[in-house]
Amino acid sequence: MKRAIAWTAFLLGSLIFILPLVGMTEFSLSMRRGVYSFDAYASVLADPQFRETFTYSVVMALFTIVFGVLLVVPTAYWVRLKMPALRPVVEFITLMPLVIPAIVIVFGYIRLYNTSSWLPLTGTAMGTNVLLMFGYTALALPYMYRAVDTGLRAIDIATLTEAAQSLGAGWTTIFAKVILPNVFVAVLSGAFLTFAIVIGEFTLAALLNRPAFGPYLQLVGANKAYEPSALAVISFGITWLCMGLIQIVARLAPKPPAQSH
Amino acid sequence: MTDPFLQIEHVRKSFGPTTVVEDFNLDVGRGEFVSFLGPSGCGKTTVLRMVAGFEEPSSGRIVIGGKDVTHLKPNQRNIGMVFQAYALFPNLTVAQNVAFGLKVAGVPKPETERRVAEMLNLIKLPEFGGRYPYQLSGGQQQRVALARALAPKPKLLLLDEPLSALDAKVRVSLRDEIRSIQKELGITTIFVTHDQEEALSISDRIVVMYGGKAEQVGTPFEIYNRPATKFVANFVGTLNVLEGVVSDAASGKVRIDSQELSLKGKLNGSKAGDRLSLALRPETIALGPKPGHDASLQGQIADVHFLGSVIRVRVGLGGGVVSLDTFNNSSTPPPTVGERAEISFSSNDLLVLH
Description:
The complex is a heterodimer of chains A (261) and B (354).
Chain A: H1 2-28, H2 39-46, H3 48-82, H4 87-99, H5 102-113, H6 125-153, H7 157-166, H8 171-182, H9 184-200, H10 203-207, H11 213-223, H12 227-250
Helix pairs in contact in A: 1-12, 2-12, 3-6, 3-9, 4-6, 6-9, 7-8, 9-12, 11-12
Chain B: E1 4-15, E2 18-29, E3 33-37, H1 44-52, E4 59-64, E5 67-68, E6 79-82, H2 94-104, H3 109-122, H4 138-150, E7 156-160, H5 168-185, E8 188-193, H6 196-202, E9 205-210, E10 213-218, H7 220-225, H8 230-235, E11 240-248, E12 253-256, E13 259-262, E14 275-280, E15 286-287, E16 295-306, E17 310-317, E18 320-327, E19 340-345, E20 351-353
Helix pairs in contact in B: 2-3, 2-4, 3-4
């Protein structure tokens, strides 16, 4: 009986989740009257603005990932190794973007870095791109930090660091040859999550007036019928691809050695 | 010691208000194998970590090969270290692990490959170069860790409880292997352990530590047979301690409960009425008289444990109990509980603990 209730709840939940997706996908294929076709997808892919905004967002995502990795991995490593008492503080800081809306962040940025400020980043396109990358990094921080911290927890970083030091390695070698390879899978998980967040992000890009994929989605949604559904399916596909890649790379992680036999 | 290779001079280490090592002094000769033995929290690992450079002494200095390394970073000391948790790099193969220190030092590839092969032969795992740490047993991992530590030809080898995580059988075989490799290479070695059997069996000298201090430094023979303090006597080996009172210092008479022992020449500085702790190792006591034994006490059999080749007998002596081991003899049945018994020993084997 309990099993039946559990299955019913599961199926109901799945239907609530899947039905809108099925409906949306079905609608995205219905551009041509009476038959299913990929016309909406063809229309989207043929749009030069789609290619431009998508490329822009992919490039921004890559920069965000690189900056995020350079910021988060050494921080999480150092906090675990040398300042474990600070861990709750750092965790709290990394959680802040979850409770502070993106609109607050972007207004703060605009106020701090406008053309009449001491660091007028919004004065140039490149400066605004850099600002946008910082914003994306902040939004992805909770996911990237958690992924990396979990990866670090799985290995005995203190002893591995000391072992490498006793073998003559300096901090750069330890970080590049010992720590990073052992948390690589965790970093990749964080990277894919960052990618998924950046690709669909609207608020920061729109208010900083950058040609990103998120505002393009909104623009198409406001002006066309079938194409927005096709774009939403493409976005879902990208997100799910990222999730699938996380699962695949998780299997490639270096296995922790046995402690005693 | 004429030419100490490692000198630890007046080293002290505090963590906040807690002092974990107090005025520690030790000279270690070139090629010597010295063990730090003591219970948890005695400061033995802290001293080792200060030698390795992972902790900086609060005061004092550490000299290796005539060079003051007190404030040198760990990666500048050329010291090999083996950890209790193996600490092999999980992302590297066995060969890559062993080659790590050589690559860091910029050793050319052919030389690195030759040295890795040499090290894998030394630890008797020449076929394991391509395996990852997770594919090895605990004993194999620790041998690889030893090879990795030795590959860059360090001046000093530090072993931090390297056998603690292994099962008993592997522990004994690896212990012997470590000692034989150390002798073969002639490398100065410091070995930290809380296992007295390990320390006694492989060390040239042992430093028994307690409360951040070196209680006694000596050869295993000296530590076991001539413990300098009550702590050393109790910590190393099994010991029977009898509490006595000096009844006549001039003639060496000591009263234990209602019985009297004559200990001529062992009561220097004592006077009548002084309380003494007298200690005896179980193997120095015989049940009944024995040639060469010049002292005896009367008691009652309190307990008999049949252990196969050995029979452990506990004899009650008034307030105290003495344990002794006798070999099992198929023609002589073990004593029975409650039976009156005499124990004998040589007064030379009696340790007077102050």
